[in-house]
Amino acid sequence: MVKRATYGSVRRLGSRYGRTVRFKLGKIEAEQRKKHKCPYCNYVKVRRVSAGIWHCKKCGATFTNKAYTVGKISPIKQVIEKEEVPKASKKELKENKKQEAKT
């Protein structure tokens, strides 16, 4: 049996522009319209607002990335995450002050 092609969003083009171009366009449109993984909260809730602008419905983050898909996290964000130092608790701060006062 012959495999029938599913056209999706490119059916609107009819028989114009050729088969290969229509299928490439269909792949791009399907990728941009699906939900993506958020680089901040790691939930699959990110939708495309416009070319290069993405919004996460879970954490409310709006950020820029690739035009048709969410790519890797920018190197700047990765550097900031590595430099963060965990904050000391109040008890640890009080103990440090007591030790400094004794010396």
Give a brief rundown of this model:
With 103 residues, the protein is of the alpha+beta class.
Task: Describe this protein with a few key phrases.
N-terminal domain of TfIIb, 4-stranded antiparallel β-sheet, alpha+beta, 16% strand, 103 residues, rod-shaped
Q: Identify low-pLDDT runs.
A: none
Kindly give the count of domains.
Answer: 2
Net shape: rod-shaped
Mean pLDDT, to the nearest integer, reads: 81
Task: Walk me through the structure.
The chain is an alpha+beta fold. The protein folds into two domains: 1-32, no CATH class; 34-102, N-terminal domain of TfIIb (Single Sheet). The chain is rod-shaped, with a radius of gyration of 24 Å. The N and C termini lie far apart (88 Å). Strands 1-2-3-4 form a four-stranded antiparallel sheet, with no helix packed on it. The longest helix is centred in the N-terminal third of the chain and has 15 residues, at 19-33. The relative contact order is 0.10. The chain has helices spanning 19-33, 75-83, 90-102; strands spanning 36-37, 44-50, 53-56, 62-64.
